[in-house]
Amino acid sequence: MTVIGVDIGGSKSLAVRVDDGDVATEERSKLDRSMSIVDAVALAVDKVSDGPLEAIGVGVAGLVRAADGVLVWGPHVSGIDVPIKAILEQRYGVPVVVDNDANTAALAEFRTGAGIGYRDGLLVTLGTGIGGAIVIGGEIYRGGSFAGEWGHARIEEGGLLCDCGKRGCWETRASGPALARLGREVIAANPGGSLATRLGQDEVTGESIVSAADAGEETARALVAEVGRAFGNGLSDLISIFDPEIVVIGGGLGSVGESIVGPARRVVVDSIHGGNLRVPPSIHVAALGQAAGAIGAAMLAKELLHVR
Ligand SMILES: [Zn+2]
Predict the structure, then answer these.
(1) Measured in angstroms, how far is the CA atom of residue 167 from the centroid of ligand 1?
(2) Is 92:121 a contact under the CB 8 Å cutoff?
(3) What is the 124 CA–ligand 1 centroid distance (Å)?
């Protein structure tokens, strides 16, 4: 049985082809924001496709109504009220399931990755923005449809303008673009400094700053730690709200590991409500890395076949 899982994030897409339960191939691409979301998914599907398909699962970074597979809106993706499921089912002639990409990542991580064995937990993605999924009793909790969009919890009055159109959202302080903005500020203030020299003509992105930090560049390390702390402050609030058994950190920036998650974890330990009278939940980096969203989408697609 062949199913394809696709994850459309804010800046990248990742597709996997799963043959008889094993991930046979994985392809990631930079997203062309001028392309429609459906064409972006189809391009990703076609890249990994190799013969007949039985189902397609899609995770999208945005407000997705999983019941009918409609992308309602997303600050980092193009399109409003796009019936992705209906269009793709017509195009490929196979069943299609569409969900929020943090939900699909959570499904994969809690079944086969870092969250295995836990029934109540959170998955928090850190990338172009912050996304999330809530797992209760081993199942994804969706609320009305869109639960877990805590990247847009407003942590500052006024504050920086977010891609969602509001100001002061958590992800304006903790995300790849937030890290890039800090980097650009440092470089503008000190164009001959070590960070500017290190990055040279490279584009200043969250990833390039993390690479510089991991290579030991001190300014980059300080910036990554600053974003890690901003991330940790929000995690601490989520832990106060949910008291999860585990928090799994995914997404393009979250998956890089300890350079960003380490400072976040220390903030949680220092600021958690109840202090040292309680044991904070484990905070783990996603075991499936950046592929979690696509693998979970393929799992959802497989479930669809069992139901029918
Ligand atoms: Zn926002």
Answers:
(1) 7
(2) no
(3) 15
Q: What is the Å distance from ligand 1's center to 149 Cα?
A: 9
Q: Within 13 Å and on the Cβ side, how many CA atoms surround 177?
A: 14
pTM above 0.85?
A: yes
> Do the beta carbons of residue 281 and residue 246 sit within 8 Å?
yes
Residue 170 Cα to ligand 1 midpoint, Å, equals 7
- d(CA 127, ligand 1 centre) in Å: 14
Domain ranges of the chain: 2-106+290-307, 116-287
CA distance 185 to 179: 10
Q: What is the pLDDT of residues 105-158, one digit of tens each?
A: 999 999 999 999 999 999 999 999 999 999 999 999 999 999 999 999 999 999
> At the topology level of CATH, where does 2-106+290-307 sit?
Nucleotidyltransferase; domain 5 (3.30.420)
Q: At the topology level of CATH, where does 116-287 sit?
A: Nucleotidyltransferase; domain 5 (3.30.420)
pLDDT in tens, 199-234: 998 899 999 999 999 999 999 999 999 999 999 999
